[in-house]
Amino acid sequence: MSIPSTIREYRSQGDNHQNLKIQQAPLSKPRASEVTIKVHAVSLQYRDLIVSKGRYPGQKTNVVPCSDGAGEIVAVGEDVKGWKVGDRVSPNFAVDHIHGDVTEDIKNTGLGGQIDGMLREYINVPSHSLVKIPEHLTYEEGATLPCAALTAYNALLGPVPLKGGDYVLVLGTGGVSIFGLQIALASGANVIVTSSSDEKLQVATKLGAHHVINYNKNPNWEDEVLKITAGRGVDHIIEVGGPNTIRKCIKAIKYAGQVHIIGFVSGGDSGIPVGAAIGKAITFRGILIGSVKQFEDMNRLFIARQIHPVVDRVFSFEQAIDAYSYLESQKHVGKVVIKIA
Ligand SMILES: NC(=O)c1ccc[n+]([C@@H]2O[C@H](COP(=O)([O-])OP(=O)(O)OC[C@H]3O[C@@H](n4cnc5c(N)ncnc54)[C@H](OP(=O)(O)O)[C@@H]3O)[C@@H](O)[C@H]2O)c1
């Protein structure tokens, strides 16, 4: 395959996604420890909206946005072992997070935030960041895995993995939450999904959710969760809501349950109510995506259960701004994808 010396890429000045600019850029040869990937698809996260507004901690100026992509290797550096041209791959969200705990240095290798990301036609990445895309997935599906799926996997099957028969509560039907639903179901849990919309809840039910609650129609949804669990509360919560949902989650969790602190889509600025947390001996665990090792473990589950990510809509490379607007509108269930090649 001939590799171009000039490619197209987007850049963000942090002044809103409407101002994302496409430009031409040179493509260098991969360094000895790198591979060149022809990017086929990219998926969007809530984080990409934050980066586009210039509000992501430590973000690079004039950054190439987006953490999540999938493509094929088109060139291999001279010291790279174990990878070859034609392999279907994704780089991990933080390219240096190979295994174990995250560190400050690792955090500073986040694609599309601290370093240039995936919203471009080709990228050079270190080979230690690579994970193979499961064979049953298309590039569009594979592009959804690095951030949202791995975050949900790290929460539910991390240091305190869920057990079959556990109750898992997922808030909303965005990217992380729908993966939380799928991973929990595949691991034998009972799943409760909340959402702003009955139509979205129908999708969750079709995917296998055991119980669904519309949090707009039922603002005291935490009481409903307690009713469903016969007063016991749930074992794990995918907490993407943040300050405005945390108190409800403390009510909905069982004694000594696991609240996975992931996001802040519900807004607000209150802290964790300490007394209530102590009173139920709750574990709060902040999640920061995951490692290459966890990504590989997760893919084994996706392969074993033939899980297909829920791709809501696919936009073209030229429509990237529309894709961001669609994500921002929160009309989606699961993932919004940009097809590049
Ligand atoms: N810590 C990490 O490692 C990590 C990794 C990935 C994402 N995150 C964070 O997790 C959050 C979700 O990210 P994402 O990419 O999955 O977002 P997303 O795909 O944009 O999903 C957002 C969804 O959140 C739901 N929502 C909005 N307000 C809500 C509320 N008050 N209560 C419950 N649900 C609400 C909506 O679904 P409904 O209309 O169905 O309610 C909305 O579609 C973000 O804050 C993101 O920054 C963190």
From TrEMBL:
CDD domains: MDR7. Residues 15-338 form the Enoyl reductase (ER) domain. SUPFAM superfamilies: GroES-like (SSF50129), NAD(P)-binding Rossmann-fold domains (SSF51735). Gene3D superfamilies: Medium-chain alcohol dehydrogenases, catalytic domain, NAD(P)-binding Rossmann-like Domain. Pfam families: ADH_N, ADH_zinc_N. GO terms for molecular function: oxidoreductase activity. PANTHER family: PTHR45033, ZINC-TYPE ALCOHOL DEHYDROGENASE-LIKE PROTEIN C1773.06C. This is Enoyl reductase (ER) domain-containing protein.
